[in-house]
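Re: your question from the hallway

Yes, I did run it. Sequences:
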Amino acid sequence: MAVLAWVMMGLALWHFTIFLPDRFWGGIVGAFLAAIVGAVLVGMAISGFAVPGEDDTTILTAAEGAPGALLAMALVYAEGTRRERTRPGAHAA
Amino acid sequence: MSDRRRNGLILLLVLGLLVASVVVLLQKPTRLGLDLQGGVELVYQGKPTPQQPRVDAAALDRALEIMRDRVDQLGVAEPEIQRSGRDQIVVGLPDVKNAGRAQDQVGKTAQLFFYDWEPNVLGENAKPDPTNQQVTGGTAAGRVGALPYFEAVQLAAKRPPAVERDNSTTDQFYLVDDARKRVLRGPEDAVADLTSEQAAPPGSKVVKVNQGTVLVRAEKPDAREKKKAAVAPNRYYVINDDPALRGTDIRNPEQNFDQGPGSSGEPIVTFDFTDRGRRTWQNVTRAIAQRGAASQVPGTDPQTAYQHFAIVLDGELISVPYIDFQQNPDGIDGSNGAEISGGFTIQSAQDLANLLTTGALPIKLDLISQSQVSASLGKQALNQGLLASAIGFLVVVFFLLLFYRVLGLIAGAALVIYAVYFYALIELIPITLTLPSIAGLVLTIGVAADANIVIFERVKEEIRAGRSIAAGIATGYKRGLSAIIDANVVTLMTAFILFILATAGVKGFAFTLGIGTIVSLFTAVLATQAALSTMGRSRLISRPSALGAGEQRFRWRFDFMGASKWFFSMSGLILLIGALAIGGKGLSFGIDFESGTRITTNLDRPATEAQVRSVLAAEGYADAKIQRLQDPQLGRNVVQIRTANLQPAKVQDVRAALNQRFGVGNNFSNDSIGPTFGQTVASSAVVAIIASLLVISAYIALRFEWKYAVPVLIALMHDLLITSGVYSLVGREVTTSTVAALLTILGYSLYDTIIVFDRVRENVPRMPRAAFSQIVNRSMSEVLTRSLATSFCTVLPVLALLLFGGETLKDFAFALIVGIASGTYSSVFIASPVLTHWKERESVYTRRRRRIEKEHGGKVPAYAAVGAEAQEERRREAEEAQARNARGRRVTTSDEPEEISPQEFDDLVRDLHGDGAKTDGEPPEEEEVDAAAEPPAEEEVEAEPGKPPPAAAPAGPSSSTPKPKRDKSKRSSSTAAKRRGKRHGRRR
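Structure:
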């Protein structure tokens, strides 16, 4: 249940990347993958690298997916920006 | 073959099949499932035995045959016994009221073993003690000397393993509480099975009894002893698992009566031996007799020295007779057979004889699910299902008539034909009609209508673009077909995966969905095309308005991509709320997943929850969840009880207790699901979802390009998660039906996305200078009406299921409605924007975007632009074309499919004159590549730099070019059109 909540949280936050310029590494799909993977990984890390069972999943557990998703998307964005800057003939969108 | 002859043949075939179907319907009865006619369903899981260490297909088949024989002996008409998955067997027994007896008879392993008693019974030190009557029971062997369960387990656990092929069991595990000296659970074949349903309580521990040692329950007290309560129940002997004979050594078992001199006249079971059995029997009884003679103390009663052999059936002592060494000093000759007596009733003796006749099952079978539906409940469910189907069918026909007029009439007739064919197939194959299969049937009504809508919208589009009615019909069908095939292939794939991987109940749904999809392709495409083409010249459809293809009053001109930010935000918010709901409330899993027993019944006398609880508490189920239901169709005073998983006998105990206190009505039904079954359902659902996603992605990647597959997957994920979130928010129970519905949502959501992406794919080569967002905007504006119409048409019958179906159908319908709404939304507002964002990163679209931004002051217009005059001219020309059609120029209008519309004609002329491609000083590298690969089209008439941004382009015919006429130039244009057909891509 916790994994489901984390994935949903990651997917939910990913939707708001549409407001940012598309500089993600891998584009909107790269951001999507980062959000999901980041949410699950950091969620698990916060839970001591274990998946909380159905009874142990709370609103807080779901919220634990948020920092991971945001962090991962920020990393992908930073990497995308770096690549864009270093590309020959780079052009800011 | 001419079109007319072809159409005639198709119509003749349709008619012939219709007559044949009616004949089938009149002659063949419908096979109803247990949920529609009442009965018992038992699901067993095979477990290995020492003789059959692997549960393979052959062992399951042998078990299946034996079970079939047993069911025949129960006298059940039309039983259904089939394999399910790798290791399960599903037994459906219509009209069986006593689930307990059915379970006893059908799934009992019936492993019969004969043991030499005294040398094998273990004493205090876990060693045989043949002379100790405290251990063997002496003259009361089988009843005296047995130990309490806990002590027996502890004693057995001291024995080392003694593995032999003829052992009756493998290692066995028990969960015990040392402090309270109680065996809490077991025996199980694996440690995990002990805790699969509930965690082990604190202070408990697992005890292992090695193979080679077995616990057998002492003989049951017979009726007279029961009354006297002289024998303590549930005591056990611990014996060496070294059987002398087994069930395979006997033959011809029969129920008889003890009729010898001085006999009791009680029911007994007699049998003969096989050759091997006879020899072994003689040897064993000789050894027992000789041992008895040797142990006799002179001067004492010889009876005290009699030795015994034990008959054990599935771990229970049936009888422990002695061998009279004086009468049989050389053992007993087995040629006259033998008998088993032991306090049988006639029924129990018959049952044992039947079990021995059919033989032992080659594997052990664990009952993992059991459900019982009363006949009246089944009838009610059937009526609700049929009512929902009929209403669903009628509203779809009504919608088609309202929206498409004459076309709707044809589609309605096709739906009627579809329903007749489909029902005939159900009876012919035959398919057992269950509630899930009714849901599948209703859904395929929507799918069949969807196919018609896709084509009709295309026909209307062609006619509005200036084609004659006959040509519009021909072209519409021709060009709409590939989208329908794509969409239906995906539905078929989903149905196939569901059928292969899902549990039994869902298989029916998948099968009807698959069959329905194939039949609907025939009726909705072939039959309607033949009918419409035949009618093409009739006065009935001489005017475009008769087909709903009059002047288009409303055209979508919405900046879908521009607004996608807000739609994304909305989805994000819904998912955020869903995630928090999943975290906070979780999902309410039904007993299908969580294991347990659900009893629903009406009571003769009213009862509060507390009163029902007091009855259940007396039975040991104080923690049961009790709910009063208001369901007039089930009767008055309806209660639903949920407890931990109960065996059928326990369910009958609960029923008897409720009956005694409140009177149980005729709508008693129960479901018991074991933990293994729940795990199977959950894991098969996950596998089915993953398999569907993989197959669907591969198909999209092949049919479109791989970049189209990723947004589709994201949209599917969006739909599934939103549906899960909604389930969590409303607290609705998640059942196997929900899982089936979720998987159907996958297929449906994709159906819708394919319709949109198909048009995007088609428009890409038509708009070689447009930004991808403009291509998508235009595609959306063209197909949104169609997409909404198909979704609405599918929702209608599903809504009928939700309003008029029974509980199971409502489960399906709720998930489907949420999924269809989410699927339609995600196709337009999630999948397409993701595709746009991703594709616009490609260099060709990046350059186009930069150019357009440069031309339009840093902004990209929502729609690719053409000059305002051209726009006006196109509109006027389209009106003229429609007016011509309305005047009925059918005598001179060609109905050849290859006739091109004025709009296409404009494109062709520009193409031939070579204008367009290089009119605006475009950087050569991109456009040259584009122009070489893709022909120029209407969007090439773009505003030149410096001119103000023009208005958006309509879909109507273009201006400033000659109108198409049926002369030489027309013919040459048609030829060019044929040439260009492949290059342009076709509208679908």
